[in-house]
Design brief:
This protein is 24% helix and 17% strand. The protein is α/β, with parallel strands linked by helices. α6 runs parallel beside α7.
Length: 504
């Protein structure tokens, strides 16, 4: 069945492709953190140095209209891995913390679990941010990943003022979260370092990823590698190979290091001979943290950034790369991180989870540059609720805002609509923008001739809301400091005593 499907793809592809694959396709999913639409060289930034991502964009398919489901980390990651809006899984409002009692519910089905059903070996390296819980209840190894190396939440969720972020001993910029344990580096469910050594972190990640790919190839096993990077989230860091190398400063150095790890993964795929049987997909979790000024990202033409339901908060760069199967070019098809699970499942010949999915299959976009099966995208705020429901809806090239609000994450920009002081505002009739003509959301279409568009969007919104069943909030389960990961759990005084180092 898989051979037949791959041959069909090859027939539709405008370039020659090999049908006789030794195994089902491998998947590498790259996920940047707090990266803006305008941060990559291939998406228009004049001083970012990202040669490996630029190569993927030049030789693969670049998406111009790709969306995530939330303008902050945890809910966006939940939607990516499950193909379901975070409101269904309960990863709202906001994000999970080191001592959170909740996490991604174990009855949710992740991409890793979907692929494991077809004999895939799976690994994750980097930022999880979907819960730790009592005795590691919610860690990646409990959610379909055979192996895991990484920090289980955001690397600013622990004191960082005395940690080194750039060589030789440049301390991290800012204080990060106080009163909690320093960030741990975990291998599977064991803490290997606390605090994590930022200068060596990406080296450990790239070596882990390379070992995983090599072993999978040796065992002739199809594989899924998920690499959600900490870059370019605050505080930025980089090791000796990248520190001071970017004209863009600390943010640029961190972005270069992420790109370097991508390059090492590509090199391993080439050296093991599986690059032509591997689909690589890249995107980011949410828009840039503009409050960090030059130490934050850039949304390009898009309005505002992280924390908002404007385009800058939820529209992300995205690239699909598969030599011999995906023709180089650009697609304007509407697509989302929700669509990755059903797409990978189809290519692997895996059955879909028997739940309400919000994602759709993207294979026609990938292999034929065809139209999207997705007609609409729904924008939830950081704190979604049944009372307010979605803040905005995109239908085709139109976007209607029912509510708008600024965010602390998007402070410091000249646009007052992005500020925390731009309080919640209801719009009746909804603001309406043509995103093809006006991607910056500057010019409201307020004439009566646009009433049919508003009516169509209202109908789509009502249909979607009728299908939405809010899951129990995992964040509202609260926090317990005893759940914070500590490599010496019985030590005192906490959190200061939680320190250890061991070989990976």
């Amino acid at each position: 069945m898989m051979m037949d499907f791959m041959c069909i793809i090859a027939l539709f592809a405008p370039i020659t492709a090999q049908c006789a694959l030794a195994s089902p396709p491998n998947f590498v999913l790259l996920f940047a953190d707090d990266l803006g639409y305008g941060d990559l060289g291939c998406f228009g930034h004049p001083s970012s140095l990202t040669p490996n991502l630029d190569r993927l964009a030049a030789q693969g398919l670049r998406f111009t209209d790709f969306y995530v489901t939330s303008p902050v980390c945890s809910p966006s990651r939940a939607a990516l891995l499950t193909g379901r809006y975070q409101t269904r899984s309960g990863i709202y409002p906001g994000v999970l913390y080191p001592g959170s009692r909740g996490g991604l519910p174990l009855n949710e089905t992740t991409i890793a679990e979907v692929l494991k059903s077809q004999g895939y070996t799976t690994a994750m390296v980097g930022k999880w941010h979907l819960g730790v819980g009592l005795n590691g209840t919610y860690l990646p190894t409990k959610q379909g990943f055979d192996n895991y190396l990484g920090i289980p939440y955001s690397h600013d969720q622990g004191p960082c003022q005395n940690l080194t972020c750039f060589p030789p001993d440049v301390k991290c910029y800012g204080l990060c979260d106080q009163g909690v344990v320093t960030v741990p580096l975990m291998f599977n469910e064991i803490i290997k370092q606390q605090p994590a050594d930022f200068l060596q972190l990406e080296k450990a990640y790239s070596e882990f990823a390379s070992r995983f790919i090599n072993v999978a190839v040796q065992n002739k096993s199809p594989f899924f590698l998920y690499y959600p990077s900490h870059h370019t989230h605050y505080p930025q860091y980089a090791g000796a190979d990248y520190a001071g190398k970017s004209p863009r400063g600390p943010f640029g150095d961190a972005l270069m290091e992420f790109d370097g790890t991508v390059g090492k993964i590509l090199k391993t795929l080439e050296e093991t001979g599986v690059i032509n049987n591997t689909l690589i997909f890249f995107t980011g979790d949410n828009g840039p943290e503009l409050m960090r000024k030059s130490r934050g990202g850039n949304a390009g033409l898009m309005k505002c950034g992280k924390g908002t339901t404007y385009e800058g908060g939820m529209r992300e760069p995205a690239i699909a790369y598969w030599p011999g199967f995906i023709q180089p070019g650009v697609t304007h098809a509407l697509a989302s991180s929700l669509d990755i699970l059903p797409t990978f499942a189809k290519l692997a010949g895996a059955p879909l989870p028997e739940v309400q999915l919000d994602g759709v299959d993207m294979t026609d976009i990938l292999f034929n540059k065809g139209p999207s099966k997705r007609q609409a995208m729904f924008y939830y705020p950081v704190d979604p609720s049944e009372k307010y429901s979605v803040f905005a809806v995109r239908w085709k090239n139109f976007k209607a805002h029912y509510y708008t609000r600024g965010a602390a994450h998007s402070e410091t920009t000249p646009d007052n609509n992005c500020s925390l002081l731009a309080f919640l505002k209801y719009h009746d009739p909804p603001l309406l923008f043509n995103l093809e003509a006006d991607p910056s959301e500057n010019y409201n279409l307020d004439g009566t001739e646009w009433d049919p568009v508003r009516k169509e969007i209202q109908t789509i919104k009502e249909q979607f809301e009728a299908s939405m069943v809010f899951g129990e909030s995992e964040i509202f389960k609260g926090k317990d400091s005893s759940l914070e990961p500590c490599c010496t759990p019985n030590c005192t005084p906490k959190p200061e005593c939680c320190r250890c180092t061991s070989a990976l």
